[in-house]
Amino acid sequence: MSKSTTNDFARIIVNAFSLQSAITSNQMLADKGLTTAGWLVLRRLSNKEDLSVAALGRAFSLTRQRMFQIVNRLAEKGYVELQINEEEKRARKVLLTAEGREVLKAVEKELTALLGDALSEMPEKSMDKSARMLRKLTLAISGETAEKADA
Q: In angstroms, what CA-CA distances link 78 with 26, 84, 102, 133, 139?
Protein backbone atom coordinates (compact mmCIF):
# COMPACT_ATOMS: atom_id res chain seq x y z
CA MET A 1 0.00 0.00 0.00
CA SER A 2 1.45 3.35 -1.00
CA LYS A 3 1.87 6.22 1.46
CA SER A 4 -0.82 8.17 -0.41
CA THR A 5 -3.27 5.25 -0.12
CA THR A 6 -2.48 4.90 3.58
CA ASN A 7 -3.10 8.63 4.12
CA ASP A 8 -6.38 8.48 2.19
CA PHE A 9 -7.47 5.47 4.23
CA ALA A 10 -6.60 7.26 7.49
CA ARG A 11 -8.59 10.31 6.35
CA ILE A 12 -11.64 8.12 5.61
CA ILE A 13 -11.42 6.52 9.06
CA VAL A 14 -10.98 9.84 10.87
CA ASN A 15 -13.95 11.33 9.00
CA ALA A 16 -16.11 8.26 9.74
CA PHE A 17 -15.29 8.56 13.45
CA SER A 18 -15.97 12.30 13.35
CA LEU A 19 -19.38 11.68 11.78
CA GLN A 20 -20.18 9.03 14.39
CA SER A 21 -19.11 11.44 17.13
CA ALA A 22 -21.29 14.22 15.71
CA ILE A 23 -24.29 11.90 15.60
CA THR A 24 -23.58 10.78 19.17
CA SER A 25 -23.36 14.34 20.48
CA ASN A 26 -26.52 15.43 18.67
CA GLN A 27 -29.43 15.73 21.09
CA MET A 28 -31.86 13.83 18.86
CA LEU A 29 -30.74 10.41 20.16
CA ALA A 30 -30.89 11.48 23.80
CA ASP A 31 -34.35 12.98 23.24
CA LYS A 32 -35.54 9.51 22.28
CA GLY A 33 -33.77 7.76 25.13
CA LEU A 34 -31.13 6.28 22.84
CA THR A 35 -27.38 6.03 22.92
CA THR A 36 -25.39 5.54 19.74
CA ALA A 37 -25.02 1.86 20.64
CA GLY A 38 -28.77 1.52 21.12
CA TRP A 39 -29.49 3.22 17.81
CA LEU A 40 -27.02 0.94 16.02
CA VAL A 41 -28.59 -2.15 17.58
CA LEU A 42 -32.03 -1.00 16.38
CA ARG A 43 -30.59 -0.45 12.89
CA ARG A 44 -29.05 -3.92 12.89
CA LEU A 45 -32.34 -5.49 13.99
CA SER A 46 -34.26 -3.61 11.31
CA ASN A 47 -32.02 -5.24 8.67
CA LYS A 48 -31.80 -8.70 10.22
CA GLU A 49 -34.43 -9.60 12.75
CA ASP A 50 -34.35 -12.36 15.29
CA LEU A 51 -30.70 -12.13 16.39
CA SER A 52 -29.43 -13.48 19.68
CA VAL A 53 -27.75 -11.22 22.22
CA ALA A 54 -24.50 -13.10 21.53
CA ALA A 55 -24.81 -12.54 17.75
CA LEU A 56 -25.41 -8.82 18.32
CA GLY A 57 -22.40 -8.70 20.64
CA ARG A 58 -20.21 -10.32 17.97
CA ALA A 59 -21.52 -7.92 15.32
CA PHE A 60 -20.41 -4.94 17.42
CA SER A 61 -17.32 -6.56 18.99
CA LEU A 62 -18.87 -6.34 22.45
CA THR A 63 -19.07 -8.96 25.15
CA ARG A 64 -22.36 -10.76 25.61
CA GLN A 65 -22.70 -9.05 29.02
CA ARG A 66 -22.21 -5.55 27.59
CA MET A 67 -24.64 -6.23 24.75
CA PHE A 68 -27.16 -7.59 27.24
CA GLN A 69 -26.98 -4.27 29.14
CA ILE A 70 -27.69 -2.34 25.92
CA VAL A 71 -30.53 -4.68 24.94
CA ASN A 72 -32.07 -4.51 28.43
CA ARG A 73 -32.16 -0.70 28.26
CA LEU A 74 -33.84 -0.90 24.86
CA ALA A 75 -36.34 -3.44 26.25
CA GLU A 76 -37.14 -1.13 29.21
CA LYS A 77 -38.05 1.58 26.72
CA GLY A 78 -40.18 -0.88 24.74
CA TYR A 79 -37.96 -0.72 21.63
CA VAL A 80 -37.04 -4.43 21.63
CA GLU A 81 -38.44 -7.63 23.05
CA LEU A 82 -36.49 -10.62 24.32
CA GLN A 83 -37.78 -14.10 23.57
CA ILE A 84 -36.57 -17.57 24.45
CA ASN A 85 -34.96 -19.25 21.46
CA GLU A 86 -36.80 -22.54 20.96
CA GLU A 87 -33.75 -24.08 19.25
CA GLU A 88 -31.32 -23.11 22.00
CA LYS A 89 -33.08 -22.38 25.28
CA ARG A 90 -30.17 -20.46 26.85
CA ALA A 91 -29.92 -18.03 23.93
CA ARG A 92 -32.38 -15.15 23.96
CA LYS A 93 -33.60 -13.71 20.67
CA VAL A 94 -33.92 -9.95 20.34
CA LEU A 95 -36.85 -8.67 18.31
CA LEU A 96 -37.56 -5.12 17.23
CA THR A 97 -40.98 -3.91 18.43
CA ALA A 98 -43.38 -1.60 16.61
CA GLU A 99 -42.30 1.15 19.01
CA GLY A 100 -38.66 0.41 18.16
CA ARG A 101 -39.43 0.71 14.45
CA GLU A 102 -41.18 4.03 15.05
CA VAL A 103 -38.31 5.53 17.06
CA LEU A 104 -35.83 4.29 14.44
CA LYS A 105 -37.91 5.86 11.69
CA ALA A 106 -38.02 9.16 13.64
CA VAL A 107 -34.24 9.19 14.16
CA GLU A 108 -33.58 8.45 10.52
CA LYS A 109 -36.00 11.17 9.43
CA GLU A 110 -34.12 13.67 11.62
CA LEU A 111 -30.75 12.43 10.36
CA THR A 112 -31.93 12.79 6.78
CA ALA A 113 -33.03 16.36 7.50
CA LEU A 114 -29.68 17.15 9.17
CA LEU A 115 -27.62 15.58 6.43
CA GLY A 116 -29.97 16.41 3.57
CA ASP A 117 -27.94 19.12 1.88
CA ALA A 118 -24.68 17.20 2.12
CA LEU A 119 -26.28 13.97 0.94
CA SER A 120 -28.16 15.62 -1.93
CA GLU A 121 -24.81 16.60 -3.46
CA MET A 122 -23.68 12.97 -3.58
CA PRO A 123 -25.03 10.79 -6.40
CA GLU A 124 -26.80 7.64 -5.23
CA LYS A 125 -24.27 5.51 -7.12
CA SER A 126 -21.43 7.12 -5.17
CA MET A 127 -23.23 6.55 -1.86
CA ASP A 128 -23.73 2.88 -2.68
CA LYS A 129 -20.09 2.52 -3.73
CA SER A 130 -18.91 4.26 -0.54
CA ALA A 131 -21.07 2.02 1.65
CA ARG A 132 -19.76 -1.11 -0.09
CA MET A 133 -16.16 0.08 0.27
CA LEU A 134 -16.55 0.80 3.99
CA ARG A 135 -18.07 -2.67 4.40
CA LYS A 136 -15.13 -4.25 2.53
CA LEU A 137 -12.64 -2.37 4.70
CA THR A 138 -14.46 -3.48 7.84
CA LEU A 139 -14.44 -7.11 6.70
CA ALA A 140 -10.76 -6.94 5.72
CA ILE A 141 -9.70 -5.52 9.08
CA SER A 142 -11.91 -7.81 11.15
CA GLY A 143 -11.01 -10.89 9.13
CA GLU A 144 -14.68 -11.86 8.93
CA THR A 145 -16.44 -13.33 5.96
CA ALA A 146 -19.55 -11.66 4.60
CA GLU A 147 -21.76 -14.44 6.06
CA LYS A 148 -20.15 -14.11 9.50
CA ALA A 149 -20.48 -10.32 9.49
CA ASP A 150 -24.17 -10.52 8.66
CA ALA A 151 -24.91 -13.01 11.42
A: 22, 17, 11, 34, 32
pTM over 0.85: no
CA distance 15 to 10: 9
Instruction: Give me the domains of the chain, ranges plus CATH numbers.
Output: 3-142 (1.10.10.10)
pLDDT digit string, tens, across residues 25-66? 678 888 888 988 999 999 999 988 778 898 899 888 899 899
**Exposure b/e, 94-122, CB count within 10 A at least 16 = b:** bebbeebeebbeebeebbeeeeeeeeeee
Chain-centroid distance of CA 137 in Å reads: 16
